[in-house]
TrEMBL record:
Positions of the Protein FecR C-terminal domain: 248-314
Residue ranges occupied by any FecR N-terminal domain in the UniProt entry: 14-56
Domain FecR protein, first and last residues per copy: 111-202
InterPro entries: FecR, FecR_C, FecR_N, Ferrdict_sens_TM
Domain of life of the organism encoding this protein: Bacteria
Species the sequence originates in: Methylomonas defluvii
Name this polypeptide is given: FecR family protein
Listed Pfam families: DUF4880, FecR, FecR_C
Length: 318
């Protein structure tokens, strides 16, 4: 293994490494980012040095699993040894690894949640955007090594800022979803997890398995609560993303599934006075936030009479 070549003086490289570490931290604020931008403008060598450090980090996965020549010597070397370019590379690599490990250990986690009928947009420090649907709770942990999301319940759309050296993983139920530069939707409930990819591709890993299966754009896949896979299916991306605009799209959807979807957005429960009504199907676009127009449309579209009793909506045959 040949260590990456570093072309700038040690002092500038050390400054670049310090900036690189700080910029990966979630606590790095806009003021520090502006200070970094000013540092870059001070000397053309600063940008080159920063690119060298980023390249060094990009090679870290390979370097850390390879026996680097001279490593034992580097650990006990006197300061004069660092004049050698290879030793400088190794010293910066070790400092980068140790600093990154410390930041990873100290990285805080943040919980975001929405109530019934609420939506929320979360902008992460790495440039990724999360959009939370109704009754959703997730935990975010950003560190220098990784970006990890734990979707505890509900539904979220992930628009990921892809960084090959900084993996983005969503954990939910019995599934790990690893980003490969994507926009994807994840829904998790008592029945299992459904993943739909709108752009790019994700890798799906069941449990702690190292082996995963890639899911490309335009497809969805479900895994039940017991960890059993369903076959990938082509997905209607407009239907998947409709909730972002407060809409629900149904396409010959059984009424039992329709009312279950409405129960996610409103503090009500539906009951079928006639069980046969559950097999009726419904198509159309509806406002997820307003239940009354939906119930009125239901009576017009289907042979159904609606009666609301406080927090229960009873559906009768008409």
């Amino acid at each position: 293994m040949t260590a990456p070549k570093l072309s700038q003086p040690p002092k500038i490289l050390q400054q670049a490494a310090t900036w690189f570490v700080e910029l990966q931290s979630e606590s790095c604020d806009e003021q520090r980012r502006q200070a970094f931008a000013q540092w870059l403008l001070q000397n053309p060598a600063h940008q080159t040095a920063y690119d060298d450090i980023a390249s060094l980090w990009g090679n870290l996965d390979e370097l850390k699993t390879t026996e680097v020549a001279g490593l034992n010597t580097a650990r006990s070397a006197r300061p004069r040894v660092w004049r050698n370019g290879k030793m400088l590379t190794i010293s910066l690599l070790l400092a980068t690894v140790l600093t990154g490990a410390w930041l990873d250990f100290k990285a805080p986690s943040t919980v975001y949640q929405t109530g019934i009928g609420e939506r929320q947009t979360v902008q992460l420090a790495d440039g990724s955007q999360l959009q939370l649907n109704t009754d959703t709770q997730l935990r975010v942990r950003l560190s220098w090594w990784r970006r990890e999301i734990e979707l505890q319940q509900g539904e979220a759309m992930f628009n990921v800022a892809h960084q090959a050296w900084h993996p983005f993983t969503v954990h939910t139920g019995n599934l790990q979803i690893k980003d490969i530069g994507t926009v994807f939707n994840v829904r998790h409930d008592n029945h299992g997890t459904a993943v739909s990819v709108l752009e790019g591709e994700v890798a799906l890993h069941a449990g702690r398995s190292w082996f995963g299966e890639n899911l490309p754009a335009g497809f969805s896949r479900k895994i039940d609560a017991g960890g059993h896979w369903q076959k990938p299916e082509k997905t209607n991306t407009k239907q998947v993303a409709a909730w972002l605009n407060g809409q629900l799209l149904f396409d010959h959807t059984p009424l039992t599934e329709v009312v279950a979807e409405l129960e996610r957005y409103h503090a009500v429960r539906f009951a079928f006075a006639d069980p046969a009504l559950a097999k009726q199907t419904l198509s159309g676009s509806f406002n997820s936030a307003d239940l009354k127009p939906f119930l009125q449309a239901l009576e017009k579209i289907l042979p159904i009479r609606v009666q609301r009793q406080k927090q229960t909506v009873v559906l009768y045959s008409r």
